[in-house]
């Protein structure tokens, strides 16, 4: 197989949205730190939405991006919480995967913490192939050609081979 066609994990993003509830935000930060051992960053609103009670500068969530070996190690645990079963609807056409974990106590090795309570989180996995640097570099940025982009089928195959994922029926 051509080494430039080999799919790999670029990053994993863990996300918890709390709205304007600061107590829930603190619990979300503690949860992500418990799962990964790394402190997340707060996400801040940029728009004013009066009907939701939001204004610019208000923290409304927490997120953390993991890369390389730490990302693979955490992803294995998170997939075990889902019993290694995903739906095909959780894969997009760009080869990205998103799924939610309803209760963090489903994650192996994570015990219930009364300070956090029952809370879930969202997991987003971004896949890439070698050569994707051309879309991020400073000089001469270029788009990824369609024939080199990660397709939904390639993402499904990668997850089946690397993480023993099974697809849920009827999805």
Describe the structure in your own words.
This protein has a five-stranded antiparallel sheet with strand order 2-3-1-6-5, covered by helices on one side. The chain has a two-stranded parallel sheet with strand order 4-7. The chain is of the alpha+beta class. The protein has one domain: 50s Ribosomal Protein L5, Chain: A. Helix content is 24%, strand content 23%. 19% of the residues are buried. It has helices at residues 22-36, 68-81, 152-163; strands spanning 8-17, 41-44, 59-66, 85-86, 97-101, 121-128, 166-167.
Class derived from helix and strand content? alpha+beta
Question: What number of structural domains do the residues give?
Answer: 1
Distance between the termini: 30 Å
Biggest sheet strand line-up: 2-3-1-6-5
Q: What summary fits the major beta sheet?
A: 5 strands, antiparallel
| Helix run count | 3
The secondary-structure element order is EHEEHEEEHE
List how many beta strands DSSP finds. 7
Note the overall shape.
globular
Please mark out the parts with pLDDT under 50 across 5 or more consecutive residues, or reply none. none
Question: Would you tell me the overall average pLDDT?
Answer: 89
Q: Say which CATH homologous superfamily is assigned.
A: Ribosomal protein L5
Architecture, CATH level 2?
Answer: 2-Layer Sandwich
CATH class: Alpha Beta
- The residue fraction in helices comes out at 10-25%
């Amino acid at each position: 197989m051509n080494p430039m066609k080999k799919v790999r994990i670029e990053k994993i993003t863990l996300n918890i949205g709390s709205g304007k509830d600061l107590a829930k935000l603190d619990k979300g930060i503690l949860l992500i730190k418990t799962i990964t051992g790394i402190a997340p960053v707060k996400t801040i609103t940029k728009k004013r939405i009066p009907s939701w009670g939001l204004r610019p500068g208000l923290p409304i969530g927490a997120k953390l991006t993991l890369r390389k070996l730490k990302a693979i190690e955490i992803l294995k645990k998170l997939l075990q919480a889902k019993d290694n079963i995903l739906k095909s609807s959780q894969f997009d056409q760009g080869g990205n995967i998103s799924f939610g974990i309803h209760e963090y106590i489903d994650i192996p090795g994570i015990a219930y913490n009364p300070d956090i309570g029952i809370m879930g989180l969202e997991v987003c996995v971004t896949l890439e192939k070698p050569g994707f640097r051309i879309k991020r570099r400073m000089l001469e940025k270029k788009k990824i050609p369609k024939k080199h982009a990660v397709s939904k089928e390639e993402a499904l195959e990668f997850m089946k081979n690397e993480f023993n994922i099974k697809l849920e029926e009827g999805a």
